[in-house]
Specification:
alpha/beta; 44% helix; Rossmann fold; 6-stranded mixed sheet; 5-hydroxymethyl-dUMP N-hydrolase activity
Length: 169
């Protein structure tokens, strides 16, 4: 679905992350602005920018939200899914399933610092102690769907490179 025009490739990206906390809202806003700056020939759908369904002082029922966001996701060439948090956001997990089933490539962004030190023998040994896991867990089914359709990166610079590489392929 990539559309070529004079000056480069134009692609549509669906950006999925939680959007209810101020921290998530601002992170999404900042990261998407950075992506738009670094990759100018891209159209990024950020659900929080769709006031018709995501102005939480207003009203949109579950059907309206599901229809609007699913239509945007199904029209995308690529999905970015932020995987950070105590668990993957429920909405993001659902959107990953829709993207996978629709054969839309997915780039997961997972910045959790607990993944550092994967070769540290003390951290590895601590896995044998009950309740001493030093690593964060992500649902393997959900991450498997991402890996079957794309990749998981660990920082914003890798994300930008992955999106650029996708646009060139």
């Amino acid at each position: 679905m990539l559309i070529f025009f004079q000056g480069g490739v134009f692609m549509k990206i669906y950006f999925a992350n939680g959007l209810f906390s101020r921290a998530d809202f601002l992170y999404n806003q900042q990261l998407v602005a950075h992506l738009r700056q670094e990759i100018p020939h891209v159209d990024i759908y950020l659900p929080q920018e769709n006031a018709a369904i995501n102005d939480k002082s207003s009203y949109a029922d579950s059907r309206m939200i599901a229809q609007a966001d699913t239509a945007e996701l199904l029209s995308a060439d690529l999905m970015i899914a932020v995987l950070d948090g105590p668990v993957i956001d429920n909405g993001v997990a659902s959107e990953i399933g829709v993207a996978y089933a629709s054969q839309i490539p997915i780039i997961g962004l997972y910045t959790d610092s607990r993944q550092l030190g994967a070769t540290n023998p003390q951290k590895i040994a601590a896995l044998a102690d009950v309740a001493e896991n030093q690593f964060h867990y992500l649902n393997l089914y959900t991450t498997g769907l991402i890996k079957l359709r794309g990749q998981i990166v660990t920082d914003e610079a890798q994300l930008i490179r992955a999106v650029k590489d996708f646009g060139l392929s």
